[in-house]
Amino acid sequence: MHLTLTLDPFVDSDLLYAQQLGVDWIIGDLSRWDLETLGAARNRVEQAGLTLCGLGSLPASLVATAIGGQPQADEAVEQVCRILADMGRAGISSVGYLWPSLEPDDRSTTTQGRGGAISTIHRVEELRHDAAGTGREALWQALSGFLRYVVPAAESAGVSLIYRTDVSLGALSEENRILDTVDELDRLLELAAGPALGLDLDLGFATAVLGVPVEAAIIHFGSRRTLSAVRVSHLRLADGCAQEFFVDEDSKAVVKALRACREVGFEGALCPVAAPGMTDDSAWRHKGYAFGVGYLRGLLQVIG
After folding, report:
1. Residue 124: which pLDDT band, with cuts at 50, 70 and 90?
2. Statement: residue 90 has pLDDT above 60
3. Is the overall model pTM greater than 0.85, yes or no?
């Protein structure tokens, strides 16, 4: 597995920061998606002696339009397919997507964590799934229809579409969300054979939304070779909410997660999450990422 940071390939200081931390894999955070920009992003990362392992997320508004059945949906799907084709030409092998997405103010509040750090509290609605529900099945039909068009384009380009798990999903009511259980994520990943679809698993999501131990989630998806990235965050559930904590506030869980990664032969991106927010940190949270990278590197050295 490779310690990985998500950053802007066109910011020199970000590339220098990755070099200084000894991180060798980069997930690109782009604002433009044309072929020239994609090629330039890869070249800049490689010139810095790093590897561009993929791109963070397709534009959320584009994905929402493509899946949501809006009048511009067909045009949005075509645009996604063009991006995938251009990524293949540029030699970039994966891209994430988030769906559905929520604005931060809709899903969270903040409190003080250890040492006065800014800790986010995410609302998590109770999950029952007593019945499939017409709303949930409509969401599945919309997502399946989107993937039916874009997966062939991804396969042709040699690009993997990586679903990014996000704890904000837990704030939605049950009728308005899918992909919130292990079985439903399996259903998603089984919509296409081979590497066209993958999973970016946030450990906090496994705890707060899936409701399974982090090591169990890694073994489940890792053994099926659908796990593309692991994001190391630490959330604790209480009173219908999930609060952020520093990853070293539960070292046993993180060690179990890393050992599970070793057990299944995971060779993808291992991404620290810069949370909670530290005092006098930058907007990008340089201190937080440095803490996460250093902590994970130390644990990896210990477990061998």
Report:
1. confident
2. yes
3. yes
Amino acid at 98: L
Instruction: Give the C-alpha separation, 170 to 207, whole Å.
Output: 11
Q: Residue 64 contacts by C-beta under 8 Å, 6 or more apart in sequence? A: 99, 100, 101
What pLDDT, on the 0 to 100 scale, is given for residue 102? Answer: 67
> Which residue bears the tokens 């991106």?
269
Which CATH number characterizes residue 158's domain?
Answer: 3.20.20.150
Chain CA centroid to CA 259, Å: 20
Q: What is the domain extent for residue 68?
A: 2-303
Measure the CA–CA gap between 154 and 88, rounded to whole angstroms.
8
**Per-residue buried b or exposed e for 116-152, using 16+ beta carbons within 10 Å of the residue's own CB:** ebebbbbbbbeeeeeeeeeebeebbebbeebbeebbe
Amino acid in the structure at residue 131: A
Alpha carbon 60 to its chain's center: 13
Cα–Cα distance, 300 to 259 (Å, whole number): 9
What is the 3-class SS of the chain, one letter each residue? Answer: CEEEEEECCCCHHHHHHHHHHCCCEEEECCCCCCHHHHHHHHHHHHHCCCEEEEECCCCHHHHHHHHCCCCCHHHHHHHHHHHHHHHHHHCCCEEEECCCCCCHHHHEEEEECHHHCEEEEEECCCCCCCCCCHHHHHHHHHHHHHHHHHHHHHHHHCCEEEEECCHHHHHCCHHHCCCCCHHHHHHHHCCCCHHHEEEEEEHHHHHHHHCCCHHHHHHHHHHCCCEEEEEECEEEEECCEEEEECHHHHHHHHHHHHHHHHHCCCCCEEEECCCCECCCCCCCCHHHHHHHHHHHHHHHHHHC
Query: Of 164, 161, 234, 224, nearest to 200 (Cα)?
Result: 164
CB 278 within 8 A of CB 285: yes
Q: How many domains does the chain have?
A: 1
Residue type (1 letter), 152: P
